[in-house]
Specification:
heterodimer, A: alpha+beta, PH-domain like, ABC transporter transmembrane region fold, 54% helix, elongated, B: 156 residues, mainly beta, 3-stranded antiparallel beta sheet, 14% helix
């Protein structure tokens, strides 16, 4: 160890892996002279040091969740350090710092990139409370607007419960003052009997009417709470980024919004209500019992702690069981949402039997999981019943002994038995609340999983106005990574307002990702995208997207009329606007041929229309909103050449005067582009106009040649003159296909 | 391409080089597993910087032992899928959840972002992706101790 004053630390990188990939914690320290490997908790304990010599380079690389930093000079590797990507940002800062002191020309750029990324750090993982029965209290957020009605309902419950407790009380005087004296030879006094009977009837009537009012009000409220939860979850879901939908399965989300909210609803309207009544009933009964005879009351309550203990034991087991049941149920629905849209593929490969088998298997698993829960559950309920029977037995025995001692009257014992009948039946139903509560808690957790998921494309607190901004898009040092994979690297691109940019490259080169970033379906990992000089993250997401028209390879039509589908982006559009858009999209004529014209229904996926027709409807949809920015993602890739020509004409109308970003596999589609951007493996490899790029004999040239070769067998005489220079036009593809 | 005449070496930068017969200069290559989960030791491609396949190795055992060792070493240095031996503690049963685990690469903690990051394997085990993209393997449930099984069950 050296004893001179340590030079100032420039950067620190916590390492969590050793060179042979064991999880070991160390820290890597950079100063002006050397790189030091030290212990994380005491940086004076140094394991190794490397002098930095002129010409040394620090190379940062990553693969499959692992990062590596290599120190090398011109002819060998001097050292290598490993870390997991949780320290990726520190590693980038570290190598950037290294490059500033050991200035290599390319290094400065990398430093810029990390600086640009600084204000947009990854969001911390959101902090949801643990799922327990306490999750249910989060439902209060939805109950709050109805608290007046809830309070009223509660008061009604209180009154109704009290009313139901009157009849057993009246058995006491009936027994002691009427029946037993009669057995002992005293005549029955009619007026007394009538008085008591009237009391019984009155109590029953009051209990009935109060119970009715209570159930009605509370069910109404809970139905509304359920609806609110469903709406809130759905609208939250709609606002989540594409990222979220990419990682979730449709069946699972459907199950959550459909059946989970239903279960919560049922819980609130039925089970919770019952539970409240039960608790009230039991409390009141206990008070009454104690006021009549404390000793007998004590004996009556003996099974209570045993039942409470049992509930506690079973609770945990049931909850985890029910969570599993829910998950397995999602699996079952997932199979449905998987196969039904893909039914053509299933049938084409005649895999019906296999799909049935898959469903059978999921169902079997569902059975198995349910069986396991039911095993616990089935034992639990009868045990509670048995314990209550036992309780009754104890009361009988103790009661008869007390009566024989003369300590209580027969009337008191009868009243007790009447009360206890109710008491234990309540106890029994109350124990059921355990399972429904756990079920609902599990469901609530799954609902809040959605609600707690913060949108990964957040809206700014103080959005900038988009009004009057030109559609000039600039990408500056854009990097994008998905999970542990870097998809786009150092993209710099300047798109002038009103110009058309064509994105070209092999599939997987990052074209669609780039377009998704411009449409802000995702946010960049580092760097920035600006419109007219302002970072797009400073605009309101909806406002920003509203100025973008999107035409996708697979046009999606919603169930509804043709007119509704065209007006999807602007529901207020009148008939003239819709028709104008359809005309411009060359869709007007075929729409008129449909049996109900613009009022024709198109199926779930627009089944009754051909690919080209659907595409033209989606172009009309994009035209109608009159977007400043237009994104065409392989808009003509999935149709035949004849249709492509029609679509192309429609697109030509669409493109005029708008900033257009077009992705096309067939280079012919991009014949009017002002600039072509060639992407390869997430990097821009070439930019320029068609002729210019061809002369360069680079990447674009090879792509172009490959397409020519593909079309070679085709006759060339029908080539349109204006695009002859680019690529053999659409007319040739039918031969190649 | 037949792998039997494959000649490999490591350069001073720890980069795997392939010496194609007759070629003047060696090609730097990266070994890539075609079935990293289903068959990690079979079906390995040697890929150059442009992602083009330069050689195909159907089985590592087809190679001369020291060449196979070079590839194994490069793969081991490049990627890992630690096997989770024990789950000592989980911060909570809702995701995101931080797990304290013991693996065959030592003890560490991982963050599970969502339950969907646990993927069942045909072998009966599971594959877990942590929040930063590192993959961990979990053996079939019955090979874990009871506590780990109990923790795991809450997320399945």
């Amino acid at each position: 160890m050296s004893h001179r004053a340590p030079p100032s630390v420039l950067a620190r990188l916590p390492l969590d892996l050793s060179p042979d990939l064991q999880f070991v914690r160390r820290v890597l320290i950079l100063n002006h002279e050397e790189i030091i490997l030290a212990m994380p908790d005491d940086e004076t304990v140094i394991e190794a040091r490397w002098r930095i010599e002129p010409g040394d380079q620090l190379l940062l690389s990553e693969h499959a969740g692992l990062g590596a930093l290599q120190l090398k000079d011109a002819d060998k590797s001097k050292a290598q350090w490993r870390f997991t990507l949780s320290h990726r940002q520190a590693a980038e800062a570290f190598s950037a710092q290294f490059n500033t002191i050991n200035a290599a020309p390319s290094a400065l750029l990398a430093f810029d990139a990390t600086e640009g990324a600084a204000p947009w750090l990854d969001e911390p993982l959101n902090d949801a409370p643990p799922p327990s029965t306490w999750t249910l209290f989060r439902l209060w957020r939805f109950a709050k607007p109805y608290k007046g009605q809830l309070l009223f309902g509660f008061l009604l419950t209180l009154a109704a419960t009290a009313a139901t407790l009157v009849p057993p009380y009246l058995t006491m005087p009936l027994m002691d003052d009427v029946l037993i004296p009669f057995q002992n030879g005293v005549a029955i006094e009619q007026s007394t009997v009538l008085k008591y009977l009237a009391g019984l009837l009155g109590a029953a009537l009051v209990a009935w009417s109060l119970g009715w009012a209570r159930t009605y009000i509370l069910s109404r409220v809970s139905e509304r709470i359920g609806a609110d939860i469903r709406t809130a979850t759905y609208s939250h879901l709609m606002n989540l980024s594409l990222d979220y939908f990419g990682s979730k399965r449709t069946g699972d989300l459907m199950a959550r919004i459909g059946s989970e909210t239903d279960r919560i609803n049922l819980f609130l309207s039925l089970h919770l209500l019952d539970f409240f009544t039960d608790v009230l009933m039991i409390t009141m009964t206990v008070i009454i019992l104690f006021s009549i005879n404390p000793w007998l009351a004590l004996v009556t309550l003996i099974p209570l702690p045993i039942i409470a203990w049992m509930i506690h034991i079973v609770r945990d087991r049931l909850r985890t069981g029910f969570e599993r049941v829910d998950r397995v149920w999602s699996q079952v629905t997932n199979i449905l949402s998987d196969t039904i849209p893909g039914i053509r593929v299933v049938k084409a490969f005649s895999q019906e039997a296999r799909e049935s088998e898959r469903f059978y298997q999921a169902n079997q698993l569902n059975l198995k999981v349910n069986d396991r829960v039911n095993r616990t559950w089935s034992l639990f309920a009868p045990t509670v019943t048995a314990l209550t029977e036992l309780g009754l037995l104890i009361v009988w025995a103790f009661g008869i002994w007390q009566v024989s001692q003369g300590a209580i009257t027969v009337g008191v014992l009868t009243a007790f038995l009447a009360y206890i009948g109710r008491f234990y039946s309540r106890m029994d139903s109350m124990s059921r609340i355990v399972s429904v509560t756990q079920k609902t808690a599990a469901g609530t957790k799954r609902i809040f999983d959605i609600l707690d998921h913060a949108a990964s494309v957040p809206n700014p607190k103080h959005p900038e106005s988009l009004y009057g901004r030109k559609a000039a898009i600039e990408l500056h040092q854009v990097n994008f990574r998905h999970g542990n994979r870097g998809i786009l690297h150092d993209i710099n691109l300047n798109i002038k307002p009103g110009s058309m940019v064509g994105l070209v490259g092999h599939s997987g080169s990052g074209k669609t990702t780039l377009v998704n970033l411009i449409a802000r379906f995702y946010d960049v990992s580092s760097g920035g995208i600006t419109q007219d000089g302002t970072d797009i993250r400073q605009f309101n997401v909806e406002d920003y997207r509203r100025q973008i028209g999107l035409v996708l390879q697979e046009p999606f039509l919603f169930f509804g009329t043709v007119a509704e589908n065209i007006a999807y982006g602007k529901a207020s559009a009148n008939h003239e606007e819709i028709i104008a858009a359809a005309r411009a999209a060359h869709a007007h004529e075929f729409i008129l041929k449909l049996p109900h014209g613009y009022d024709s229904l198109v199926g779930e996926r627009g089944q009754s229309l051909s690919g080209g027709e659907r595409q033209r409807i989606s172009i009309a949809r994009a035209l109608l909103i009159d977007p400043k920015i237009l994104i065409l993602d392989e808009a003509t890739a999935s149709v035949d050449t004849e249709t492509e020509r029609e679509i192309q004409q429609a697109l030509d109308n669409l493109v005029q005067g708008r900033t257009t970003i077009a992705i096309a596999h067939r280079l012919s589609t991009l014949r009017q582009a002002d600039m072509l951007v060639v992407l390869d493996q997430g990097r821009i490899v070439e930019t320029g106009q068609h002729a210019e790029l061809l002369e360069r004999h680079g990447y674009y040239y090879r792509l172009y040649q490959a397409q020519i070769k593909l079309n070679e067998p085709a006759e060339r005489n029908d080539t349109e003159p204006n695009c002859a220079a680019l690529t053999p036009p659409e007319g040739h593809h039918h031969v190649a296909n | 391409m037949l792998p039997t005449n494959l000649e490999l070496s490591l350069n001073a930068f720890n980069q795997l080089l392939m010496h194609p017969p007759g070629a003047a200069s060696p090609i730097p290559v990266t070994p890539v597993r075609a079935f990293p989960i289903a068959a990690p030791d079979d079906a390995i491609a040697l890929v150059d910087h442009h992602g083009a396949e330069q050689a195909w190795i159907a089985h590592l055992t087809d190679l001369v032992p020291n060449q196979a060792e070079l590839i194994r070493q490069t793969l081991a240095n490049r990627e890992m899928t630690p096997l989770i031996l024990r789950i000592n503690h989980v911060s909570r049963f809702a995701t995101p959840s931080v797990w304290q685990i013991e693996t065959n690469h030592g003890a560490t903690e991982i963050t599970l972002k969502t339950e969907d990051d646990i993927r069942p394997l045909p072998s009966g085990g599971y594959l877990v992706a942590d929040a930063f993209g590192l993959q961990f393997k979990i053996p079939p449930r019955n090979q874990l101790d009871r506590q780990s099984q109990r923790y795991l069950a809450r997320f399945l």
